[in-house]
Amino acid sequence: MARQDQPINAGVPPTSSEKPVPAVAPSKPVTSSETPAPSPAPSRPEDPPKPPRKGIPTALKAIAGLVVVAVVFIAAAIVGGGSTEDGGAIPGAAPSREAPTTESEPVTATEPPEDLGYPEFATNNTTRVGGSDPVSNAAAVALAVYPSTEDALRPAAVALVDQGDWRGAMAAAVLMAQPLQAPLLISGSDDVPEATADALEALAPRGTPLAGRAQVFALGAAATPDGLRARRIGATGTAAAATIARLRDRLFDRPPRHILLASATRSELAMPAAAWAARSGDPLLFTGASKLPAATRRALRRHPDLPVYVIGPSSAISSQVVREVGRVGNPVRRVSGEDAVENSIALARYADGDFGWNVNDPGHGFVIARSDEPLAAAAAAPLSASGTWGPLLLTDSADTLPAALRDYLLDVKPGYTTDPTRAFYNHVWLIGDSDAIDVGQQAEIDELAELARIGGEP
What we know:
The chain has helices at residues 59-72, 134-145, 166-171, 194-203, 237-251, 267-280, 294-301, 319-328, 340-349, 375-380, 403-411, 439-449; strands at residues 126-129, 158-162, 184-187, 216-219, 230-233, 259-263, 284-287, 308-311, 332-335, 365-370, 392-395, 415-416, 427-431, 452-453. The chain is of the alpha/beta class. It has one domain. The longest helix is centred in the middle third of the chain and has 15 residues, at 237-251.
């Protein structure tokens, strides 16, 4: 139910007095009854080469740029930087131009506007974490949440997840919940990517008293840097999720209130559950389409009276699995949409007592990522448990905003009648560079999040 005390009519389409959508061109166009569970969605085809961008000269400047992001993201005053392949430098603010050395080289107002990073990296109502891969984006998010300019702004610990295990990475999002509040970074099995190493150096985790002053929780085969006190979680996949749920019970000062159950084969349907796990502290478990894994069953038996929320349609998690969960003793409810986009919206709208985002009115944060990049859910999870605390929504295209997502954002579009400074506002984080979500789609999202005048005197 919408709030009764706010001067907002979220269901009214934008009026002609609204600010028009900025005329921006994308930096480069980018060209489901119950059934057996389909195979995992294939990755999108390899994108054509990107046009050159102004690079970040050093990893330290990149990290400094991310600190700026953390301080000023509410105003969306972010400037863009370069990105590198395979876990390179962290995306952030573009480096400052050097002062002119002679009078013949002045910096004038005729500089290309794209050098400022607008609108690709920030608009009035959107902020982009613009890395070219989940490694860079996870590092950027961690530093946006924890600017780490002083000890009070550093995390106690960091979760280091394996880039080859999206199930374990999503399940580890629960470690971002209070009281641990450990952001997620992504590592390889053989070495630590540069962006992750640089972020760890900047974050300098203090060590959590909840786990023997451990600074890092390393998942699966994730490599860890030397010099940090690490606690290893050796399991992977579905077993890792069950192990993390048990670890969560030991570390947290309270038992969970609910349990999330997502598809172990349809990553795009599981992604929104990671954001809720980070926000709530509810553990995330996985299942096959027609059979409940033994590790998941054992995890459920530790809390047989807790309600289990199945995330996704029966084509991904069958009614047979729901009955298996019920036989353990847990009450079961399903939250679902027929595809990845609609499924993410269903969880964003859902409310059942103290479970669910219940985001059905204006005045919220949102996170939007591509549905074909499962690690983006882990990378972005800290944004759902800090700042503007918003659900993860999904888009399935680089250049076209899905109709269902457009309709949802329009439904929760903020408005005011007489005084915009007393209104509620929406803010949207975008995860990925313009090859993942292009500038045209960002501009449309910005307009849908823009505060609109509704009635009243001009």
